[in-house]
């Protein structure tokens, strides 16, 4: 098995280019057995997928990681035991961003995750009209200088605000945004800025909540609650409707099916590989159904997506673009990255 490729963020942290996303333990995807979730995490680490992405608002995600991290330290011995990388998010409610408020939030995450410092804090802010996000980032930057935070990053910030923050001298390592065969808004403006400023894009939604898979090829449009049974399916079905609708999506799946068979891989692996190859993309976050009975781990698809022998050809890219170029302009329709989270 080839080692999972890594990327080094600007502060020196080395992470896997395929990250294990923990949003799906937040409760919006059904009940989660926390004990089983901790146990399930070992399968990812054993496969070389050692980087986990979570948030302070993802239900018990930080606690689950903390329990696994503690167990990992106790049971691990020797130099060949892989280290873990943990990226969390700080998502405060609107309000005063005094130093003590920010410190309390960071300390809470460290306690939950059972660590003495945070590998990476990805900051989210709900309302750009409230400029106190700059206060919060200033405090986070100070805490980074003190060694409590290794990498200071953002999640769902647009290019304008990313430039504003960077121009204030705050070093940003990465920005977590939606990026996929369907949602290619980062290519409009953000990609160029990130490349010029050594900022990595960490992308989610790359598999459209599982819709970009063989399971939905040739299927009728999903409409009922029974069919859209997870928060991810509902979210990305809405994105598909904005992008161009189910008929165009089926055209995309037919194309991906043809290409994936040529490369002896799944559609999921192909869709992930496509995004991994895009400029400025440091890593792709693939959701993990931890602690859920019967949920496939899809580890083999993740490993195949970053295998050195999976290489998309110019013919492959042309075939994919022949479909995606028929879609609506999501930048004009929704706005820049993250604008869907703000009114």
Low-confidence stretches: none
Helix-strand pattern: EEEHEHEHEHEHEHEHHHEHHH
Number of discrete helical segments:
12
Gap between N and C termini: 46 Å
What is the architecture at the second tier of CATH?
Answer: Alpha-Beta Barrel
User: Main β-sheet: number of strands, strand sense, barrel status?
Assistant: 8 strands, parallel, barrel
Which strand order spans the largest sheet, edge to edge or round the barrel? 3-4-5-6-7-8-9-10
How many domain regions? Answer: 1
By DSSP, the count of extended strands is 10
* Level-1 CATH class name: Alpha Beta
Question: Helical residue percent?
Answer: 25-40%
Any idea what the CATH superfamily is called?
Answer: NADP-dependent oxidoreductase domain
Defining traits:
343 residues, alpha/beta, TIM Barrel, eight-stranded parallel beta barrel, 12 helices, 10 strands, globular
Tell me about this structure:
The structure is a single chain. The chain is α/β, with parallel strands linked by helices. It has one domain: Alpha-Beta Barrel (TIM Barrel). Helix content is 39%, strand content 14%. The protein has helices spanning 34-46, 61-75, 99-113, 133-145, 159-167, 190-196, 231-243, 246-263, 267-276, 299-305, 314-324, 330-333, and strands spanning 6-8, 14-16, 18-21, 51-53, 85-90, 118-123, 149-155, 174-178, 200-204, 281-287. The strands form 2 sheets. It has an 8-stranded parallel beta barrel with strand order 3-4-5-6-7-8-9-10, surrounded by 4 helices. A hairpin with a 5-residue loop joins strand 1 and strand 2. Helix 1 packs across helix 2 (61-75), helix 2 (61-75) crosses helix 3 (99-113) and helix 9 crosses helix 10 (299-305). The longest helix is centred in the C-terminal third of the chain and has 18 residues, at 246-263. The radius of gyration is 19 Å and the shape is globular. The N and C termini lie far apart (46 Å).
